[in-house]
Amino acid sequence: MAAVNKRDLGAGLFVLGIGVAFLLWSQTYPPRMSAMPKLVGWVTIVLALIDIAAQFDTPLGRMLRRIAGLEIAGRGNQTENSADAPWRLLIAAVLWVVGYIAGIYLVGFLAATPIYIFLYMALHGRKPKRVSALTAIVATAAIWFTFEYLFHYPLYPGWLFGGQ
Amino acid sequence: MLESTLAALQVLFTPSGAAFLFVGVVIGLLFGVMPGLGGPTAIALLMPLTFTMQSNHAMALIGGIMGAVSAGGSISAILLNTPGTAPNAATCFDGYPLAQQGKAGLAIGAAATASTLGGLIGAVVLVAVIPVMKSIVLLFGPPEFFMLAIMGLSAIALSTGGQFLRGLIAGLIGLMLSFVGYNAVSGGVRFTLNIEYLWDGIPLVPALTGLFAISEMIALSVSGGTIVNNKAAGNVTSVIDGVAAVFKHWKTLLQGSAIGTLIGAVPGLGGTVAAFLAYTAAMQISKHPETFGKGNIEGVIGPESANNAKDGGALIPTLAFGVPGSAEMAVFLGVLVLHGLDPGPMLLIEHEGVIFSLILALSASCIIATLITLTFARYLVMITLIDVHVLVPLVIAVSLVGVYALQETMGDVVTAGIFGLLGYLMMRFRFPRVTLVIALILGEIAERSFFQSLNMSNGDWTIFFTRLPALILLAITIGCLTFPAVQAMRKRPQQPARAE
In chain A, which residues have their Cβ closer than 8 Å to the Cβ of B431? Predict the structure, then answer.
């Protein structure tokens, strides 16, 4: 009995884990506070088990896939369907966002934004350094003008410069 | 009423009145286009500036903003898959695939037209129901709110197309997230991991920005190229086709406008719920429901008509009872108070002219915003041809700045980042994001209304089945849930016949 799709099986197991963990966490609260969360936890576990069972090439699995719509899953638009992108590229894309947020936290928006835009375009996008630098400066200036100058929104100055 | 309308028209068509309206429309469009901002931010920002204005001029300015925000939000939803405002999120599902197919002009034309007509319908309904506002709003008690939330949650099952099971699972995860924070029923906090920031629950705007803007940028960063898949797709269709499409799908327009007006009038639900319900309802009446999520123009018309129609509906409880139907209305309430206009039944009697100034400004702004959008759509669609490695850092930067500007807390920025990753993983493993969003919005309402209803009835469950409005909502819910199954059973025997 082999799984039809190991990646989907992994997703089902992950959801099962979330359901179990949430149910156990719900138990730590008083009855009135945990009534709805417990119900949601139980239903999640049941649906996760159905999802897992649907991943196996058995009569039950085939029937469940047909009913649950899993066989036609993934026919959505391009971005809903980005399941085949290599993990290496995904990790790189996520690290850029994480790095930018960490940069904002440390040195604030007005310093982190031009650095992020320049580095992303020049290193990740392989754009000419002059174009990258110009885009970074213009974008940061536009953000500063719109948010701080025009609408008086104080942008986060960064932990190193007194931000909390 | 006629005298008030004429007086309001006179104010609106003075140079200063028209100028305030136009400024409001432009600001509304800009705030709508910029992800993370939106109507509440724009109105809150300009509220102090209206203090020295005449009330009618203030209403022209604020009405201009309210009518234009959703038109602006639809542009970024269609071109970038980034909802400019939360209610525009439903427009992403079919607007963005249309942009990817090179039909951004079609989508923008349809969105702008549907938005305008929806707004006008909402305004007409508002004028019509002003005399009977009180009795309409008083029909809704906690049991009706609970049933309304269940009706919204039942839409989860319908809105997932071919991903029924995973749509339900994503909805359950959305419910789990909606339980985070202070629980009004018991007075305690839950699932916060002792993080003080989470005591108020997961903030919706950062979560939506992460799920739809950041995750999309991560996906684009991974795929590279341009938003439009191929060179042929770069041929932008005429926006006029989009305008015509709205009239072709007039049933979807009317249905979306009706849902927008109705949901907008129910305090606490707001435009996001209205737009998602209109989307699922559009899918229900469509001849091609299987193409939803892949670029069906009806999936743009439905939510966009509801988006603007909700403003008319939301003004009903705001003006009549001082109960805001949405965040935007809550801020607008502040403007009314600032001008000495105490919301309530007396407002309509003592300041009818001001109210009609607002309604006329709202209607006129819908038309002006549409004209601006349609005129510049050809240039706006060029965004889809920009290299993603230029677009991605710019959108992420503007999104995160916008998210921070709302409450000036870094927690919102981190939340957007976390939800961005969650949104991408959901795409990768084919869990629909829309169901998570619906559940996140409705979870708190459902739980609170459920316990309030039981408190009202001393624990008697029959309260949900003995009140007519609740029963009607229950019947609609059952109808929504069973209709697709019945439809599938009716279609099944026909398939072999076609094959033969």
Answer: 11
